Amino acid sequence: MNLASEELPKFGMGQDPVLEELRDSVRPAEEDPGELERATSRLHAGFLFAAEGLPALQQICKFVLGGDRLSGGWREFAALLGVDPVAVQCLWNSNDLLHVCERILAAFAHREDASLDKVVSALHKMKRLDAICQSKPHLLELVDAVLGKEKARGHPVTGNYQRSLITPEYLPPVPMILCDIPPVAKKEETEPLGPVLENLERQREPCERDPPRITSQPQNEQEVTEYAYVVMLTFANDGVAAARRVASVFRQTRAADGRRVGVVILQEHSVLVSSFGNQYVLGLFNDVDYVVPILTQGYVDSVLERGSRAPDADFSCLDQQYARYVFLQMQAEYAKHCINDRVRPVIADGFVRQAQREFVMRDALFQAWWAESSAAELARCLLCED
Q1: Which helix (H) or strand (E) holds 19?
Q2: Are residues 257 and 355 in the same domain?
Q3: Looking at 58-67, 92-101, 265-274, 360-369, which range is the least confident one?
Q4: What is the DSSP string of 109-167?
Q5: Each residue of 110-142: pLDDT tens digit?
Q6: Does residue 45 belong to any structural domain of this protein?
Q7: Are residues 246 and 134 both part of a single domain?
């Protein structure tokens, strides 16, 4: 039998054009693996959880988790990002594998050196070119969006500044087992500072004194009431009516001994807020017992910075102006203690179903919420916690 080479069919004949096109689309990632890493080296991984980064986050999580369940791809992903292997095993035992990749990235984002290129590098080391190719256009769009915002704010994005890491204002909360908790420093035995501080306080000028402490009633009310708890309402313009209804219910609900829930609304303290700004709002946030966000579409858009730069955006309400600032304080407190002791969200009537489709509702602070119609029940629960 003659097996001359000219009689054999030529290799490559009858190739599937669809498969060839797919191969060609993957080839660029193999040829230059460092291109995407260089483009994302200036961005912090926390930007994946911003509005512009959610498409890229979705593609990365989808393809890392979309492989063989027994292959342990997400475990390798966690190891390459430096996540504690014992904590990873806890995630496996929790049977919540749908969000495991998202939580790994959230834990990695809480590191100061968590640059986005390290995520891309981990995918390269895992040879997950599918995840890279699908997320690459979204990652490049994220880079353009972040650098565009930095340039609009007057921050240089070229020259020596290319080496600095751009960090987001918002970081997603993570379970306590994934947090890096710093050791508690030993307190050195020193003499009591009480008399010294009192002397310094007497020497301070009146203009340097702290702003007045909060009261739970509007400035024009003189009634002195004993409160079981004081709550701060935070809301946007479209939640003003709902906030007034909730405040009215809280103020009317009383415990058996006559005490009630005091309510603080920034607009009712406009003089102090205008005079002291963030200093007063932060002091108020630290002084109250609970913070009650009134969730509406406007509130969600405000905290996620969606449409906040629109020309027709209305910031006439002080609570609207400081909604995102208070939200960031809530996030910082949760990231520090990894437990939600003070936030009690209330969803405005008519927004309950729509709220479930919002990304912010996946935040640990908003997992347990109350409907506006249940405000009286929430007030009674607060009074019973004393």
Answers
A1: helix 17-31
A2: yes
A3: 92-101
A4: HTSTT-BHHHHHHHHHHTT-HHHHHHHHHHHHHHHHHHHHHHHHTT---SGGGGGSPB-
A5: 888 889 999 999 888 888 888 888 889 999 999
A6: yes
A7: no
Same domain for 372 and 237, yes or no, is yes
Q: CA 251, CA 268: separation in Å to the nearest integer?
A: 14
Same domain, 129 and 222: no
d(CA 79, CA 239) in angstroms, rounded, equals: 44
66-72 mean pLDDT: 54
Give yes or no for a contact between 260 and 382, defined as CB atoms under 8 angstroms apart.
no
Residue 78 three-state SS: helix
Strand ranges for the chain from DSSP E: 227-234, 260-264, 290-295, 346-347, 370-371
The C-alpha atoms of residue 25 and residue 2 are separated, in whole angstroms, by 40
Range of the domain at 344: 218-384
Task: Write down the pLDDT at residue 140.
Answer: 92
Length of the chain: 386
Is 224 contained in some domain?
yes
Q: What is the DSSP letter of 358?
A: S
| Domain identity same for 261 and 156 | no
CA distances from 332 to 114, 340, 353 (A): 18, 11, 28
Same domain, 231 and 161: no
Q: How many domains does the chain have?
A: 2
What's the rounded Cα separation, in Å, for the pair 259 and 236? 29
Distance CA 324, CA 53 (A): 19
**319 touches 266 (CB < 8 A):** yes
Tokens 């290319």 belong to residue:
162
The CATH number of the domain where 285 resides is what?
3.40.50.10140
In angstroms, the CA 130 to CA 84 distance is 26
Strand order of the sheet with strand 227-234? 260-264, 227-234, 290-295, 346-347, 370-371
Residue 17 lies in a domain: no
Please write the tens of the pLDDT for every residue from 232-250. 999 999 999 999 999 999 9
Rg (CA), the chain: 27
Q: Which of 266, 282, 264 is nearest to 274 (CA)?
A: 266
